[in-house]
Specification:
Number of helices: 5
InterPro entries: FliL
CATH superfamily of the largest domain: Band 7 domain
Number of strands: 3
Structural class: alpha+beta
Organism: Geobacillus subterraneus
Keywords: Cell membrane, Cell projection, Chemotaxis, Cilium, Flagellar rotation, Flagellum, Membrane, Transmembrane, Transmembrane helix
Radius of gyration: 25 Å
CATH class of the largest domain: Alpha Beta
Order of helices and strands: HHEEHHHE
Protein name: Flagellar protein FliL
Function: Controls the rotational direction of flagella during chemotaxis.
Number of domains: 2
Length: 142
């Protein structure tokens, strides 16, 4: 009798482990497919992005910067909204730059931090989608 109960328990445990393994495998496969689909083509990037032309502004330490951006959105609606809000986006950029010093632009980390702050602030303005990425397309520090 005890051997029969132990055998049933072992079969149930094996079935649970097999189901859990299958679920994990399916989840990993779906995540892999989602990552492949997330990478937009060059044409899709161009269609969902807007240019912020080169602008010149003062930094907090008295120096000045000339900088231009390309802002990638997640949809055509978001791109259209960003185009309409370009004056607000420029305002956000100027506010961020006015608080920075030339030393803040040293290395990759400084540029990455600026792009993340701009992405966050611009997304705060958006209602029809969101900003996926901010690219610096021109940069001169004087």
């Amino acid at each position: 009798m005890k051997g029969n109960k132990a055998m049933k328990l072992m079969i149930v445990l094996l079935a649970v482990i097999a189901l859990a393994g299958t679920a994990v495998l399916m989840a990993v496969t779906k995540m892999g497919n989602a990552k492949e689909q997330e990478a937009p083509s060059a044409d899709e990037l161009a269609e969902s992005s807007i240019d912020i032309p080169e602008m010149t502004t003062n930094l907090a330490d008295g120096r000045y910067i000339k900088i231009a951006f390309k802002i990638q959105t997640d949809s055509d609606k978001a791109r259209a909204e960003a185009e309409k809000r370009d004056f607000q986006i420029k305002d956000v950029i100027i506010e961020q730059l006015a608080e920075m010093k030339a030393a803040d632009f040293k290395g990759k980390e400084g540029m990455a931090a600026l792009k993340e702050r701009l992405k966050r602030d611009i997304n705060g303005l958006m209602q029809e989608g969101k900003v996926e990425n901010v690219y610096i397309t021109s940069f001169i520090l004087q």
